[in-house]
Write a structure and sequence with these properties.
Length: 199
């Protein structure tokens, strides 16, 4: 017990050696800096505990140097004003980090008709006539309709919708080699989903 009292006394003597202005403004300054950081990262829930903790630390520091009650009241008013000001920062619309949607590049995958170093497919003769392409499209459409009536996970339904949107660009025309490959990719994706849901 005596050792604890000595340690507290040594700590208070150390505080007494610090400049008074540092002890006076330490907690409000820390609250201002950390509050701005929390507002920028949208950590609203972390602010109240932080403000209470720094308020308790500041109260202890100011109580160790305050000469009168008025000094403490002035510090408390400053701290509350800073706390309210920092809380207003949370209403500033800081830009949020854009969350990556699951499988957001599925739609792009089925439209990748050009490869680096390969000839442009549009300049080559079509490999599937209009009738052949429409036949394959009708087959894929029938599988998609069956899948839409089944209980699918949100991720699988998102993939199915991406495939269905991709098919629209292949309708009503003859298909190049790149189009045929993309259409086969769509068919493969639909067949995998059909096998998954036992259709």
């Amino acid at each position: 017990m005596a050792q604890i009292i000595l340690d507290i006394r040594d700590f208070l003597e150390l505080l007494a050696q610090l400049p008074g202005w540092f002890l006076y403004f330490c907690a409000p300054a820390l609250l201002l800096v950390t509050g701005l950081i929390l507002a920028a990262v949208h950590a609203d829930r972390a602010y109240p505990p932080l403000a209470l903790f720094l308020g308790a630390v500041g109260t202890f520091l100011v109580a160790s140097i305050a000469v009168s009650l008025n000094d403490f009241l002035v510090w408390a008013a400053i701290y509350v004003a800073v706390a309210v000001l920092v809380r207003l920062f949370f209403y500033i619309p800081f830009p949020k980090r854009k969350a990556k949607r699951p499988r957001e590049d599925i739609y792009k995958t089925f439209h990748a008709d050009l490869d680096m170093g390969k000839p442009v497919e549009a300049e080559l003769p079509p490999v599937l006539s209009l009738e052949e392409g429409e036949l394959q499209l009708r087959h894929v459409d029938s599988l998609i309709e069956k899948l839409r009536t089944s209980e699918m996970t949100p991720a699988d339904r998102l993939e199915l919708d991406a495939v269905a949107r991709s098919l629209e660009s292949y309708r009503g025309r003859a298909l190049s080699a790149g189009d045929a490959r993309a259409l086969n990719d769509c068919l493969s994706a639909v067949l995998k989903l059909s096998a998954k849901y036992s259709l």
